[in-house]
């Protein structure tokens, strides 16, 4: 029985050759108006990324995600593990913002602000083009990398990756602790040194080897665009009505052939694409909206004295000549939900107290009957001091009056301290109904913050 296999296209994926080998992309640089704008924004974002761990707000780092201590500081506000509601509202607001921006502006994050795009296109690839001798023309180097160029290229990659790795770690351990690690010998702190080494290797692997495959294979955002975008969302689009049918420029003809579209099939939009796609094939998952094809096409149209915007920011409906709708369900629902979530987040931040309290039952018997007949419940009060300074607390019974409290030790906490205190609650047997008694306790801090907790006492 003869078996035949279908021939694969030239590129099953944009980064995969017909034989299954890796297709290395060396996109040509097209410095147009969008590229200049993206470069300015990219350098600003790089400066912000590097400086943010060093900026202090209210005496705290602007951003510090201290996983070991379970403290997350963002723009002067510190969130603790007990702030589950606040953290949930913050994450929901971030997701809703992404949904809204995608519905309005497409994948503007990927092309303009994503660290993967910013560092690859404005740090690593410029160095590559300079040392490979492809500055201006793009494409693969004409000669093999050897000698000093090879060592200079990968030496610079290593230095930049180390800087990025250390800056990235500063967001999780703080600049002070990171500076201490850098000054010490690796033998004195093998664990942190291993973390820094692994992070540097991952940076090298990503920006030197994996590159655009992170966007095409690993990142799920491109696959989500099918549900996040609609036919009125802003995308990078090729105007087929104007560009087709394609045809080469005939220099011998005095005027343009009326049956020929504006696309001269020069292929620059493909050569300049950092993910290797042909934007003329329509909306594709691999497009990261970097606008390089727009700059390349505009440069060709300028030389041919034809209108710009053959490839432009548009929408699927607009590019097909249909009416553009700005107000649609998703651009109304997303902002409404975002406003509600941000409002709840702001209210909870503004009204949160300087301490957290959790009331727990003690281990062992649920209650004890004393010699005089009083019913005693052994409880535990877990207090979390959110302040940078020590604090003291008092606890009293709001209701009923028959309940009395006895503390095992004073309620005192140091800076950022969490501690559990013993508490004995007593009441007479006649106050219990079906073996239960609802009580209300009030905890007041030395600075005046107040919390009320419900307590259920058990009895016979």
Can you lay out the helices and strands and say which pair or pack?
Elements (H helix, E strand, L loop, with lengths): L32 H19 L4 E2 L2 E2 L1 E4 L4 E4 L2 E3 L4 H22 L2 H5 L2 H18 L15 H26 L1 H9 L6 H21 L2 H6 L2 H8 L6 E4 L1 H4 L24 H4 L20 H12 L7 E4 L1 H4 L9 H23 L3 E7 L6 E2 L5 E11 L5 E9 L4 E4 L3 E3 L4 E10 L8 E10 L4 E9 L2
Antiparallel strand pairs: 1-2, 3-4, 4-5, 6-7, 8-10, 9-10, 10-14, 11-13, 11-15, 12-14, 15-16
Helix pairs in contact: 1-4, 2-14, 4-5, 5-6, 5-7
β-strand amount? 15-25%
What is the distance, rounded to the nearest whole angstrom, between the alpha carbons of the first and last residues? 85 Å
How many strands, which pairing sense, and closed or not: the largest β-sheet? 5 strands, antiparallel
Radius of gyration: 32 Å
Shape call: elongated
In N-to-C order, the SSE pattern is: HEEEEEHHHHHHHHEHHHEHHEEEEEEEEE
Give the domain tally: 3
DSSP summary, beta strand count: 16
Mean pLDDT, to the nearest integer, reads 88
Portion of residues in helices? 25-40%
Q: Give the structural class.
A: alpha+beta
Which residues sit in consecutive blocks of at least 5 with pLDDT less than 50?
Answer: none
Number of helices: 14
């Amino acid at each position: 029985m003869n078996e035949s296999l279908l021939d694969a296209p030239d590129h099953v994926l944009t980064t995969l050759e017909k034989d299954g080998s890796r297709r290395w992309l060396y996109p040509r640089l097209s410095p147009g108006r969008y590229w200049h704008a993206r470069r300015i924004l990219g350098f600003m974002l790089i400066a912000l990324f590097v400086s943010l761990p060093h900026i202090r707000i209210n005496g705290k780092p602007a951003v510090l995600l201290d996983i070991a201590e379970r403290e997350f500081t963002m723009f002067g506000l510190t969130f603790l593990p007990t702030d589950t509601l606040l953290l949930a509202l913050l994450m929901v607001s971030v997701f809703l913002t992404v949904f809204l921006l995608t519905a309005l502006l497409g994948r503007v994050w990927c092309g303009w602000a994503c660290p993967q795009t910013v560092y690859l296109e404005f740090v690593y690839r410029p160095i590559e083009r300079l040392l490979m001798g492809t500055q201006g023309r793009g494409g693969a180097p004409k000669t093999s990398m050897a000698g000093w160029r090879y060592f200079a290229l990968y030496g610079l990659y290593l230095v930049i990756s180390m800087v990025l790795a250390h800056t990235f770690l500063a967001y999780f351990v703080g600049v002070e602790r990171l500076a201490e690690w850098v000054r010490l010998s690796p033998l004195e702190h093998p664990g942190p040194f291993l973390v820094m080494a692994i992070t540097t290797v991952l940076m090298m692997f990503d920006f030197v080897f994996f590159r655009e495959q992170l966007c095409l294979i690993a990142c799920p955002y491109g696959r989500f665009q099918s549900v996040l975008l609609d036919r009125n969302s802003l995308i990078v689009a090729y105007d087929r009505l104007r560009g087709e049918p394609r045809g080469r420029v005939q220099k011998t003809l005095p005027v343009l052939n009326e049956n020929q579209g504006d696309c001269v099939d020069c292929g620059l939009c493909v050569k300049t694409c950092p993910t290797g796609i042909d934007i003329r094939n329509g909306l594709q998952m691999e497009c990261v909206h970097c606008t390089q094809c727009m700059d390349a096409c505009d440069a060709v149209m300028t030389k041919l004295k034809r209108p710009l915007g053959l490839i432009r920011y548009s929408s699927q409906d607009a590019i097909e000549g249909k009416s553009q709708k700005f107000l649609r369900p998703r651009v109304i629902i997303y902002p409404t939900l975002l406003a509600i979530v941000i409002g709840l987040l702001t209210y909870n931040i503004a009204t949160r107290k300087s301490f957290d309290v959790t009331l727990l039952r003690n281990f062992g018997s649920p209650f004890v009957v004393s010699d005089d007949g009083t019913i005693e419940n052994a409880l535990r009060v877990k207090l979390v001091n959110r302040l940078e300074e020590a604090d003291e607390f008092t606890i009293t019974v709001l209701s009923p009056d028959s309940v009395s409290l006895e503390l095992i030790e004073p309620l005192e906490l140091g800076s950022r301290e969490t501690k559990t205190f013993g508490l004995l609650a007593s009441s007479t047997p006649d106050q219990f109904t079906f073996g239960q008694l609802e009580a209300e306790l009030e905890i007041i801090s030395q600075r005046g913050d107040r919390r009320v907790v419900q307590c259920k006492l058990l009895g016979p």
